[in-house]
Amino acid sequence: xPLHIGNGLTRSLTGAxxxxxxxxxxxxxxxxxxxxxxxxxxxxxxxxxxxxxxGSDIGPDLYQFTGGTAGLGYxxxxxxxxxxxxxxxxxxYIGNGFTFMNESASTQVYRVWLTLPLEAGAAxxxxxxxxAGFGLTGIDGTLSSLTGSPMWSGQIDxxxxxxxxxxxxxxxxxxxGSDDLSDSTFGGNGPVLNTxxxxxxxxxxxxxxxxxxxxxxxxxxxxxxxxxxxxxxxxRRRN
Length: 239
Known about the structure:
This protein is mainly beta. The chain is built from 2 helices and 18 strands.
């Protein structure tokens, strides 16, 4: 049974890094109220979106978030899921599924902060890890990291604990085409108190589109060790 994270990314019950619907249904109780995430998007240094997103309850402690924003020279949509309960058997996670369309005549710089408040009674210690993918399409396309910043960061309580595609990272092509990046990371152990989150930072060439997929999560130790041991976070990069 596949679990949709966003923009075409699915995770099977045997291959899920941070969520198992069957186990959640058996071991975790559903939250009574809808859950929220905090989403901020910055374009060329200006905040173009800052909102509390209300999720749709699609399962025990599992919520889906969809939406979009558009303006002069840009069109952005999102579709991702989240589990806010770090004390559940499979821990808490937040997915990132975005599509960014640069409809302007110049390169644009995007920064995105996506934060998930956690349910009370957060577990500690936890293991954490995540994965990310970027897919570029268009004509004469270029997707690049920003100077001194990774393209993807995983955060716990507002502090970066994992990064992928550190600067310098880029993909490009001449003429009509497409290219992509994918990678994953795990490791680290420590407390989690209030939030987990994902930060995206990159530049996108004029007239082109990039889709992002991935997930960042925390799993109560030592249960996380068995999940990590089966290689669900093996590092991979494709250009």
